[in-house]
Amino acid sequence: xxxxxxxxxxxxxxxxxxxxxxxxxxxxxxxxxxxxxxxxxxxxxxxxxxxxxxxxxxxxxxxxxxxxxxxxxxxxxxxxxxxxxxxxxxxxxxxxxxxxxxxxxxxxxxxxxxxxxxxxxxxxxxxxxxxxxxxxxxxxxxxxxxxxxxxxxxxxxxxxxxxxxxxxxxxxxxxxxxxxxxxxxxxxxxxxxxxxxxxxxxxxxxxxxxxxxxxxxxxxxxxxxxxxxxxxxxxxxxxxxxxxxxxxxxxxxxxxxxxxxxxxxxxxxxxxxxxxxxxxxxxxxxxxxxxxxxxxxxxxxxxxxxxxxxxxxxxxxxxxxxxxxxxxxxxxxxxxxxxxxxxxxxx
Length: 347
What we know:
Strands 1, 2, 3, 4, 5, 6, 7, 8 and 9 form a 9-stranded mixed β-sheet that branches. Helix 1 links the parallel strand 1 and strand 2. The chain has 13 helices and 9 strands. By secondary structure, the chain is α/β, with parallel strands linked by helices. Helix 8 runs antiparallel to helix 9, helix 8 packs parallel to helix 13 and helix 9 packs across helix 11.
């Protein structure tokens, strides 16, 4: 029986210095029937040249180019180029172990699942130089979840990780669900895509082998200072809530989404506190989100104990630190931008 084709989508923006390491990972994969889709998102360095040189001797791989419209747009371009029965994602500056794709496919097929999820190893970018690219972590015990359980696990992060990258998907489910990334958003874009996908997935499996290595770089968006892009998380989370509210059978998932939004709000307020950001209305809106979302902690049994303590404390601190903004814009939370309104309708 032939191996099913797997498409791997890799957005690339000024990733020239990371690509040689990623190429080593791909060349050492024990699963050979895969198509790498490199999406050059308007890079200004030598990324496109390096990609073309690599793919010229590997006809199964392809390069797709576009303007610098952000990671959501780049991933959508990658989805348009998928030829495999299954697909997964990889970031250009990360590492995958030699049996990463093999184990994803193995568990997806053996368990007849619609999504398979592996564990993640987080590592500082500088430490990756001595990493053993041929490392083959063994598969751990498999746990299975139905649709509601999988959505709960994803948004509570009790077992799953919020990342898009450590999962494999069926192309058929993606097409039926209409799962796409909200164009123009650059932060939290994975939550809407995964929610749409899991709403049509009957079975999801998780195994604990850490075959995806998520490298944390100081220059990445996740670890940079505050900028307006971080507020894109509200567009994506509000769109998620709109989808879940349309299906009464998934009402139990909603509190977990709101607790996740509270966690993001704490992070954004932390960055604002250490910046010169002066939009008082936007700050007041974020504080209001935090206050209202924190009320869902009692309804969320699968969230970690530290969140049940940490989030309420942060609510109190936010009221004290940002009291001027709250007095100036007491109803800021009810104000929606056109982008957020579009996100909530799933457009």
